[in-house]
Amino acid sequence: MSRAxxxxxxxxxxxxxxxxxxxxxxxxxxxxxxxxxxxxxEVKIGLRAPVDAPRIFDFEDRHEPPAGFRADGLRVAYHxxxxxxxxxxxxxxxxxxxxxxxxFCSRCAASLDTYDGHEALxxxxxxxxxxxxxxxxxxxxxxxxxxxxxxxxxxxxxxxYSTLAGFxxxxxxxxxxxxxxxxxxxxxxxxxxxxxxxxPHPFPHSLMVGFVADWEExxxxxxDDEIEDARWFGPExxxxxxxxxxxxxxxxxDFIRRVG
Length: 260
Fold this sequence. Notes:
By secondary structure, the protein is α+β, with helices and mostly antiparallel strands. It has three domains: 4-101, Nucleoside Triphosphate Pyrophosphohydrolase (Alpha-Beta Complex); 104-133, no CATH class; 135-259, Nucleoside Triphosphate Pyrophosphohydrolase, CATH 3.90.79.10. The chain is 25% helix and 32% strand. Strands 1, 2, 3, 4, 5 and 6 form a six-stranded mixed sheet that branches. Strands 10, 11, 12, 13, 14 and 15 form a six-stranded mixed sheet that branches. A three-stranded antiparallel sheet has the order 7-8-9, with no helix packed on it.
């Protein structure tokens, strides 16, 4: 049974059920919205997913969900969906946003066309190709013996602390970004930086690159513009942690395994 990713602007349409929220099926949507209306709004976007990849539909934000459905931002879906479904939703959301906001060439202002052979838009006037935006960011667990340095932003849910993160600036390597962001946010220097893993982060178009680092010197001195608190935590007394699907949580759980 074919599932669907339906966006009302930036909101994802979810089916409400006794077991919680899930992606709707195409048949459920056809019954709720009408097959002709649904067919008009389908967008052909490659998800690089298995053969059962959801079909994608794009509606304007002014539309309201029909009975039995709700439309929420991706952060709600992040907590409600399985990882594979959320990855598909995040990918579709990023690609839809690219198509919506990249209609004219930034070099010559001509209207853009789809480009065969690449997942890009091409300019028929000057030949410039435009690709979906991806913004790299580093995320780092800083360790001092059996303690991890975690901070919290005012945007986090109550009581949640996470690893430190920041966006890469032009001309900067991932490693340079990690050292700079940690020092700017909490005032400490780190050493022995090592790669951990990466994760797409569609809020709205980031790629999180994870590292583990060892504390070298300095006392916590937070940048109030970046975070509201930062502390050293041992594995026995951790605060509320980020969502289990996040790379931040994976970094913290790896720390717990390593130090016992």
